[in-house]
Amino acid sequence: MDETPPDPPSNARRRFLIGTGAITTSLAAVSHAEYFSQQPPAMQAYTTKVVFKLNGEPRELELDSRVTLLDALREKLGLMGTKKGCDRGQCGACTVLVNGRRVNSCLTLAATLDGDDVRTIEGLGKSGEPHPAQRAFVERDALQCGYCTPGQVMSCVALVEEVRAGAPSAVTADLRAPVSLTDDEIRERMSGNICRCGAYVNIVAAVRDVAEGKA
Ligand code: FES
Ligand code: FES
């Protein structure tokens, strides 16, 4: 006959909790191990093929689908003219044109560009024959360190086309009249391009020269 006295209620409760805790912990360990065993190898890349036009030339790239256009340009294609400033869409140093529209290449996945027409600063002018926007920036001394300049120039090229097409901006007063390119319009339309050297006065002058065909 078992004469072991029954546990007082508080001890029984403690044993129950320890037992269920151990079971829960081992279950968690098993499901954790299972979860990680089902993951693909950490370094496995999901590559994709992209066919697009770059500065007028057809290009085909096989790349990781997570690569940005900026990194593809600089690290895969060796085009260092497009600059990486913030890498998060805040400075505009990485501005390039996609189908004639400016984009932040640091926020654009290269894999999304299949069939598109990409233009970078390298595709604007030729050696000894700069694009009018490049000439205007030099003539107006619209740079100091030059780090932001490729992005500024690309934005300027797109801006002039936007104004010619009659696209209004946030500061356009009369949406029915042709856009008048005031300094406020230029500043607003170039506001995505930060110049840490503060060459803004001369940048506005250079953009105006390009828009008015003086460069
Ligand atoms: Fe792309 Fe700054 S590097 S916006
Ligand atoms: Fe230096 Fe613009 S010229 S950041």
List keywords for this structure.
binds FE2/S2 (inorganic) cluster, about 220 residues, 5-stranded mixed β-sheet, alpha+beta, elongated, 6 helices
Please give a quick description of this structure.
The chain has helices at residues 9-37, 69-76, 132-139, 149-164, 183-189, 200-211; strands at residues 47-54, 57-64, 95-98, 101-104, 117-119.
Describe the structure.
- By secondary structure, this protein is of the alpha+beta class.
- It contains 6 helices and 5 strands.
- The chain has a 5-stranded mixed sheet with strand order 2-1-5-3-4, with helices on one face.
- α4 crosses α6 (about 200-210).
- The model has no long low-confidence stretch (mean pLDDT about 90).
- The structure holds FE2/S2 (inorganic) cluster (2 copies).
Give the SSE layout.
Elements: H1 9-37, E1 47-54, E2 57-64, H2 69-76, E3 95-98, E4 101-104, E5 117-119, H3 132-139, H4 149-164, H5 183-189, H6 200-211
Parallel strand pairs: 1-5
Antiparallel strand pairs: 1-2, 3-4, 3-5
Helix pairs in contact: 3-6, 4-6
Which band does the percent of strand residues land in? 5-15%
Task: Indicate the radius of gyration in whole angstroms.
Answer: 29 Å
Distance from first to last alpha carbon: 109 Å
Shape estimate:
elongated
Question: How many strands?
Answer: 5
Number of helices: 6
**Helix fraction by DSSP (H/I, runs of at least 4):** 25-40%
Q: What structural category arises from helix and sheet content?
A: alpha+beta
Mean pLDDT, to the nearest integer, reads: 89
SSE succession: HEEHEEEHHHH
Unreliable segments of 5+ consecutive residues:
none
For the largest sheet, list the strands in their spatial order: 2-1-5-3-4
Largest sheet: 5 strands, mixed
What are the bound molecules?
FE2/S2 (inorganic) cluster
